[in-house]
Design goal:
Layout: H1 2-19, H2 24-36, H3 40-44, E1 47-55, E2 58-60, H4 63-73, E3 79-82, E4 87-89, E5 92-100, H5 102-106, E6 112-121, E7 124-132, H6 134-160, H7 164-170, E8 171-178, E9 186-187, H8 191-200, E10 204-211, E11 217-222, H9 224-229, E12 235-243, E13 249-256, H10 258-281
Parallel strand pairs: 1-7, 8-13
Antiparallel strand pairs: 1-2, 3-5, 4-5, 5-6, 6-7, 8-9, 10-11, 11-12, 12-13
């Protein structure tokens, strides 16, 4: 009888030991340190099958979406650092942390504060949400916007002064630009030819003089053709830029505004009417 009791006690103790794996707090801490290693396979190994991850509003519902997100984020060398204790129960945790990234650091920003929440079950992360502090988000957006506006002002000046080398320094390798009266998109390799065409047609192009609420810009376009043939001075264009993470301009699309199109159509019609009347008198 005593032997049976001893065997039962020993077996129960073993079961208790086996049931006691890493605590959820330890798994969460391991997630931080593994994330800081920037190795996607190691990070994914900590997640359960088909986990849910939400980072500052972007939801990822399966492993493929998480891997895609990691592919965009890890090149920026993110580093997590907990700034509070991890609290909660039954595998549900919440805590505060900061995240540092090379692109944010290049903007002069300190590590940004986030709120983290996680659900951990059987040593795996089933759910993870990271939400940036609202004030920090506003600071980040404002800083990026100001940086982008400075780059736009620089390329506007380079185009206006027909400084091809300066344009090249401001754009990405896959840069694409469209502009009125240019039939084909301008690539980075075609910037020199674009500048020559500006000179040839005496084009005065201002891409971004006034910013609109939707992120587009108002600018102006004028050339000898419009000034001499249609009696039209500067015509309004709407410019839409996009940027790389480091501020280099990736695309700059310029198109006639609705008002400019109307002016051109009216001027063309007037010119045709005048030409027809002149021909009739002859």
């Amino acid at each position: 009888m005593k032997r049976s009791i001893a065997v039962f006690a020993h077996t129960s103790a073993l079961l208790l030991v086996c049931a006691c794996g890493p605590k959820p707090e330890e798994i969460a801490a391991k997630l931080e340190s593994t994330f800081n290693g920037n190795e996607p396979d190691a990070i994914m190994a900590l997640f359960a099958e088909e986990p849910f991850v939400k980072v500052d509003g972007e939801s990822m519902l399966n492993n493929d979406e998480i891997v895609s997100w990691l592919g965009r984020v890890l090149p920026k060398k993110p580093q997590m650092k907990a700034t509070s204790e991890k609290t909660g129960s039954h595998g549900k945790l919440s805590w505060s942390l900061t995240i540092e990234r090379t692109d944010w650091k290049s903007l002069g920003l300190d590590p940004l504060p986030f709120k983290a929440e996680a659900v951990i079950d059987r040593d795996k992360v089933k759910l993870l949400t990271l939400t940036m502090d609202e004030t920090a988000k506003q600071t980040l957006v404002s800083t990026i916007t100001n940086r982008n506006d400075r780059w736009l002002a620089a390329i506007q000046d380079a185009i206006k002064t027909r400084n091809g080398p300066a344009v090249l320094q401001l754009v990405t390798d896959d840069f694409t630009m469209t502009a009125p009266d240019f039939k084909s998109p301008v690539k980075k390799a075609g910037v020199a030819s674009f500048v020559k065409e500006l000179e040839k047609q005496n084009i005065e192009l201002v891409c971004c003089s006034k910013k609109n609420g939707d992120g587009t810009w108002n600018g102006t376009f004028g050339s000898d053709h419009y000034r001499n043939d249609l009696r039209l001075e500067s015509l309004e264009v709407i410019s839409t830029p996009t940027f790389a993470d480091d501020g280099h301009i990736r695309t700059l699309h310029m198109a006639w505004s609705a008002a400019a199109k109307t002016k051109i159509e009216t001027a063309l019609a007037d010119t045709q009417t005048t030409a027809a009347a002149t021909k009739k008198r002859r």
